[in-house]
Amino acid sequence: MAKNFDVIVIGGGPGGYIAAIRAAQLGFNTACVDEWKGPKGGPAPGGTCTNVGCIPSKALLQSSENFEEAGKHFGDHGIQIGGLSIDVARMLGRKDTVVKQNNDGILYLFKKNKVSFFHGRGSFVKAGAEGYEIKVAGAAEETLSARQVIVATGSNARALPGAPFDEANILSNDGALRIPQVPRTLGVIGSGVIGLEMGSVWRRLGADVTILEGLPTFLGAVDEQIAKEAHKLFTKQGLKIELGVKVGEVKNNGAQGVSIAYTGAKGEALNLQVDKLIVSIGRVPNTIGLNPEAVGLKLDERGAIVVDDECRTNLPGVWAIGDVVRGPMLAHKAEEEGVAVAERIAGQHGHVNFNTIPWVIYTSPEIAWVGQTEQQLKAAGRKYRAGTFPFMANGRARALGDTSGMVKFLADEATDEILGVHMVGPMASELISEAVVAMEFKASSEDIARICHAHPSLSEATKEAALAVDKRTLNF
């Protein structure tokens, strides 16, 4: 006998659990199905983000940044440390604690909002007069039904052909987060978010890190001026970044590590031998075990669920959000879609503006941006004005001891509307929110330039970059 609900959410990641909570807030009898297991086999909602992505990576980034600060920069503050060492097991243990706190927090939120949680893999069984039947394959098999189903099953790491992940030598983001000791040498294929963040973690702790990137430019999606500045800073830190390479055979040699044959940017045949290899060449939509064919749910050639602008699938009452559909694979994008879909089910007008979704790379310095890049504006033939301000001229950055990077504004030449804001520097992940709010309300660079910002603060660099659009910076 099926348990009946108004809304069933399949997947408990950022999109799924937020969608379930919002649906419950709107008065729907809601269930969320998620199969992720913690170290002891219990439920661990939160998806890739909480378990092997956003949250644990930030924990390790913080730990490794503290280690590097202590080893290289504390002396500037008069703090003397002798015999510095890293306890990797304890560091990983702290990371696991942070993850569990987030898992438990989601379970608490389900209970608080009266969301029924089912631990197991959710899959379609059939469609009928009473809606859709969903099977939950877990410790105890359950059958659920609802007229409204939200699919939020996320994505999986893309493997290199012929070099499957073993999470011991050839690592996805999962294995990269639990390397038991600092490798002497580490290779990274792909210079995207995961590659740069994980490469930074282990480089700070002492690994010799080489990043191989197939594209001829570094961070092609980032504003070119910001990307060039970031490349210079990362290279100075010790990351070896090779661009325009073509990866050939990858051999997993067990205890001897991994060898990567590749062609360099000039066509030369090269080989890289490393103890560990992180592969970060993108992610693929996850519909494993969903059984979409049982109800005729349409997928595209990439395996993503086909949806319209409002996340509706080809089936009435079935929606899909997050990494399993089109658009950027970002946790906060999934969250916004989750809220919007729950509100649409309730007859409201859920809203997601893809033009104001911020992007962040949590390296040190951080990289963050929203809106269009200078190269995009040039390609579109749009006339604009640009303004930049370096953190080296910011008093708070000097006091922090981190003056690397800059803030950059791009504004329409005629109307002064902000078209894009790009940053590389300290706490860029926090500073970008001001730009997101400004763009959502169609603000001009003059609006930001006229707003009083606290002194001394890093946010003054944002104000000064806005002033720079009109060539009237005050502190540079």
UniProtKB/TrEMBL annotation:
InterPro entries: Class-I_Pyr_Nuc-Dis_Oxidored (IPR050151), FAD/NAD-bd_sf (IPR036188), FAD/NAD-binding_dom (IPR023753), FAD/NAD-linked_Rdtase_dimer_sf (IPR016156), Lipoamide_DH (IPR006258), Pyr_nuc-diS_OxRdtase (IPR001100), Pyr_nucl-diS_OxRdtase_dimer (IPR004099). Residues 357-466 form the Pyridine nucleotide-disulphide oxidoreductase dimerisation domain. Coiled coil: none annotated. Its EC number is 1.8.1.4. Residues 5-338 form the FAD/NAD(P)-binding domain. Pfam families: Pyr_redox_2, Pyr_redox_dim. Keywords: Cytoplasm, FAD, Flavoprotein, NAD, Nucleotide-binding, Oxidoreductase, Redox-active center. It comes from the Bacteria. GO terms for cellular component: cytoplasm. The active site is at H455 (proton acceptor). Disulfide bonds join C49-C54. It catalyses: N(6)-[(R)-dihydrolipoyl]-L-lysyl-[protein] + NAD(+) = N(6)-[(R)-lipoyl]-L-lysyl-[protein] + NADH + H(+). NAD(+) binds at G190, S191, G192, V193, I194, G195, L196, E197, E213, G282. GO terms for biological process: 2-oxoglutarate metabolic process. GO terms for molecular function: dihydrolipoyl dehydrogenase (NADH) activity; flavin adenine dinucleotide binding. It is found in: Cytoplasm. FAD binds at K58, G122, T153, G154, S155, D323, M329, L330, A331, H332. Binds 1 FAD per subunit. Its cofactor is FAD. The active site is a redox-active disulfide bond. Belongs to the class-I pyridine nucleotide-disulfide oxidoreductase family. This is Dihydrolipoyl dehydrogenase.
